[in-house]
Write a structure and sequence with these properties.
Elements: E1 9-14, E2 18-23, E3 34-38, H1 40-50, E4 55-58, E5 60-62, H2 67-76, E6 79-80, E7 85-87, E8 93-98, E9 107-110, H3 126-130, E10 132-138, H4 139-142, H5 146-161, E11 165-169, H6 179-189, E12 195-199, H7 202-208, H8 213-221, E13 227-231, E14 237-241, E15 245-248, H9 266-279, H10 284-301, H11 311-317
Length: about 325
């Protein structure tokens, strides 16, 4: 693992800010929705920040009706948004999700505008990277435009060259772009990644062609990824490093029935909790065990940034 000491910020997240609308019915029949900020990368940032990490965000927010709401909600999570730019004449992304059928993960995404296209390479100053222990991005941002792809690549390349830890999740979303584009972007940044999160089985099989999590771990470790985390939903996760590979089952709830109200973005909550631990000196195995409990908390609570736990929440739950 690359050293993460002596930096002002624990985590620098480069990602798209979105607005989340959640309902408890079929989306097309819902009479009301709950609103919050969201997006995979924002949930990673918020999960880490709510657990005590010092988090900085690079993003772009459109100056539409949601502008003030998004900024206020990000600030309320104690995320540093000094590097978040405001875009005129564009719109913020919106997605709608339902908790009614958690096993089907009804998760609809709609982009009414182009704010995230303003996340361009010039927003990522080398000074910001040097002052961060970990730099994180996912393909959710890469899928927006060629410019956002270059933004992620340039940030990862500088971090890798200067021995700053790089963390990445392929977050395969084929409603946003083609499989070929997703795979090319993944392969472009793979040599630069230190911590790689991947979901099993659909994502891992589609991207790497392997049925077994152990094969995916071996494949990525052989390509010099330092830590591989295969997320398996209700089955927990498996973590692999050059020294060891260990499974971490999801904590049991006693009745044998999945307690998840919705699994949407529980994986992003896991990522944020995992990186919070790594930034604070824990090894990947302790980080995985803790991150499992955070993902479970998020899944049970169901919606919104406030479904992410603080340290006090987890103490009360235990």
């Amino acid at each position: 693992m690359i050293s993460v000491h002596n930096k002002e910020y624990d985590l620098l997240v480069i990602g798209e800010s979105m607005v989340e609308f959640t309902c408890d019915e079929d989306v097309v029949n819902a009479g009301s929705f709950k609103m919050d900020i969201g997006g995979a990368d924002i949930v990673v940032a918020a999960a880490a920040a709510r657990l005590g990490s010092k988090v900085r965000l690079i993003s772009a927010i459109a100056h539409d009706q949601f502008h003030g709401f998004i900024r206020e909600r990000l600030t309320a999570q104690k995320i540093d948004i000094s590097l978040v730019t405001t875009c005129q004449q564009s719109y913020n992304g919106i997605y709608i999700t339902s908790t009614r059928y958690p096993e089907y993960r009804e998760y609809l995404i709609h982009h009414p505008g182009t704010a995230s296209k303003h996340i361009i390479p010039t927003l990522v100053n080398q000074e910001y990277l040097e002052n961060s222990k970990i730099v994180y991005a996912s393909s959710e941002l890469q899928s927006v435009s060629p410019q956002t792809q270059r933004t992620v690549f340039n940030a990862f390349l500088f971090a890798h060259t200067n021995k700053i830890m790089v963390a990445y999740d392929p977050n395969l979303r084929l409603q946003r772009w083609s499989f070929e584009e997703a795979r090319m972007s993944l392969w472009g940044v793979l040599p630069l990644v230190d911590v790689f999160f991947v979901s099993w089985p659909e994502e891992s099989k589609a991207l790497f062609g392997y049925e077994r999590p152990l094969d995916v771990i071996g494949f990525l470790l052989n390509r010099n990824v330092g830590t591989v985390v295969v997320k398996m939903g209700a089955d927990g996760c498996i973590v692999g490093t050059e020294r060891s590979i260990k499974p971490f089952p999801q904590p049991a709830c006693g009745d044998g029935i999945s307690p998840f109200k919705t699994p949407a973005l529980a994986g992003s909550a896991f990522n944020g909790a995992f990186l919070n631990c790594i930034a604070n000196g824990y090894d990947p195995f302790a980080a995985a065990e803790f991150a499992n409990s955070v993902a479970l908390f998020k899944g049970i609570k169901g919606w919104g940034i406030d479904s992410l736990p603080t340290v006090n929440d987890l103490c009360r739950a235990s």
